[in-house]
Amino acid sequence: MLKPRNILVLAPHTDDMEFGCGATVARFIEEGHNVYCAAFSACEQSVLKDFPSNILITEIKEASQKIGLKKENLILFDYSVRTFNYRRQEVLDDILKLKKDISPEIVLIPSLNDIHQDHYTIAHESFRAFKFSTLLSYELPWNNLSFVTSCFYKISESQLKKKVEAIQCYKSQAHRNYANEEFIKSLAIVRGVQINEKYAECFELIRCIN
Fold first, then answer.
1. Which of 155, 154, 176, 157 is nearest to 167 (CA)?
2. Does this model's pTM top 0.90?
């Protein structure tokens, strides 16, 4: 990508961008692209009792800055977790507004085969909205029923470090077995080995338009 482009990451929940494509987003930003992230739920209904219910809003603001996202490019919606499938038209309407306001040329979404109901809804409504745009699905192995490793982005050690540091901002999610530095780095190494590079992030190519 030689010229700056508008890139939109659609995250069902506040931490999905960082887990799924945090290092690639850091790379895009370093390359001068205009990256936006829209997160649809702060999962207040499922936050551990040890934390304030809105803790994930605080955490995503800190985490997104770790990877270089501009404050004004973070868009937060207020959907309740695990209810997206009941509100598909509202979700689609919000996505269509993002399409109008941002005009992204590249859109990053969850896998169309993601088993989480919120992820599934965002993925499929995004495909409906952006079927004439370049669409890539980011990898969340713990949720992906199947995942075609059809697109890779090389990432540097510093970009991977930004991803790790961003995920470490999510103290409320530290109990997750995938929210640890060893796993994050190991997956980047595996994807790097597949393309003969040190580190990479993998995406499922849904549609490519140049």
1. 176
2. yes
Q: Is residue 144 part of a domain?
A: yes
Nearest to 30 by CA among 62, 71, 59, 1: 1
Output 89-96 pairs: Cβ under 8 A, ≥24 positions apart.
Answer: 91/40, 91/121, 91/122, 91/125, 92/125, 92/128, 92/129, 94/38, 94/40, 95/10, 95/38, 95/122, 95/125, 95/126, 95/129, 95/130, 96/129
Q: Is the pLDDT of residue 1 over 60?
A: no
pLDDT band at 2 (very low <50, low <70, confident <90, very high): low
Q: What's the CATH code of the domain at 64?
A: 3.40.50.10320
What is the per-residue pLDDT across 77-99, written as a single tens digit (0 to 9) for each? 999 999 999 999 999 999 999 99
Which CA distances in Å does 72 have to 33, 64, 96? 15, 11, 19
In 10 A of CB 10, how many CB atoms? 29
Residues 6+ apart with CB under 8 A from 85: 117, 118, 120, 121
pLDDT tens digits along 111-163: 999 999 999 999 999 999 999 999 999 999 999 999 999 999 999 999 999 99
When divided into structural domains, the chain yields a total of: 1
Quote the domain boundaries for residue 25: 6-207
